[in-house]
Design goal:
The protein is about 40% helix and about 25% strand. By secondary structure, it is an alpha/beta fold. This is Aldehyde dehydrogenase family protein.
Amino acid sequence: MKTYSMIIGGKAVDAGKTFAVVNPASGEPFAHVQDAGPEQVDAAVAAARAAFPAWSALPDAERKARLHALGGALEANMSELMELVTRESGKPLQGLNNVGAGMELGGAIAWTHVTADIDLEPEVIQDNEQARVEVHRKPLGVVASITPWNWPLMIAIWHVIPALRAGNTVVLKPSEYTPVATSRFVELANDILPPGVLNVVTGGGAAGAALTGHPDVDKIVFTGSTRTGKRIMENAAATLKRLTLELGGNDAGIVLPDVDVKTVAPKLFGVAFHNNGQTCACLKRLYVHESQYDDMCAELARLAREVKVGDGLEPGTELGPVQNRAQLDIVRELAEDAREHGGKVLAGGKVREGKGYFFEPAIVAGLTNGARLVDEEQFGPILPVIKYTDVDEAVRLANDNPNGLGGSVWSSDPARAVDIGKRLECGSVWINEHGAVQPDAPFGGVKQSGIGVEFGKHGLAEFTTIQTVKIMKS
């Protein structure tokens, strides 16, 4: 069983103690990683701080070239990294609608190359006989990246590449559930980047708290739960660190009564259940008009019964296990609560016997807002389908939630769907799609789904500070 080292200042570093990483398909360890203490966090931040002056001063073309080389390293090692992602996260190599480890690596590669080519040119505010006023973007310094377990490598890329592109240096702490593929990527990256530019420390909550509260960290970028995001925000307050927080989502989808149920149902199932429902911007609450409610529920239940669930390394597997036992317990508890409060489980809804953290994909009818399965983010393979009578009611119910990450409207009339979508209180809205993010379009939440945005020029700007330069001419 392989043990993975941390990378600090370009060198492999051990902490003197390790912890096991579990394959959720078997419930058994398959690797070990280092369990960082405060001294390793201090060393990583110090290495990043020491590397910052030279990296931030590097000519822009050279920094771009290094980032493109990182994309090349991901591509050259794609098979190895895909297998590591599957072993630690449980997601299939291909998966439902080809959303699996292959898509995770493909997305990581695409985000790297697209982000490498984004420029933040100086903005000229004034240029006349009196003065020229320019707005410049400057790197912040040391960025701390805290990544989750659901898309471990791709989200690390979402954090790291714009931070480096802007001229910052990075200390990355992956989830203790899924640190392996990310650690391997950082090892590969340190053959390309100068020492200290990208460091990785592995460990649990104590390592994360030491990093986010560190006085020499200038910015934190975090993807994960709202509860943890609030703790990070508290940790950052003492030194007024800049923050980008992509937090919990409980995304609603509204299906208008003009759709063809058999055509739309497979699309809805795919956007709700890919990665086993363990995606921040998955469809998590589905509102269907009463005229089509029964037909839609029946079609979704059929799809849930037919989908192939199993070990992600086995050919043909569409859905893998829930990533960890704690999350499996949450999904099971929500299913039980739904049954106790009148929900009708039309398919699945039980933990599968045997090894691993498998839950039978479930469609639940008969609930509405106020039920835990509707109000809380399930982050697993169980979807509540809620009946509505008119569009105003559907919009009200969709907005009746503290989260506001994404939302969608499904209709044969896109113009009408856009009008309805604009009424949803969320950072992104999709028409006849859900959760389709891309590297050149900003993505982020409102309400308690986060602060700031990622991707594109807007996301890149989050890793900079503004400096206004005024040049007097008279």
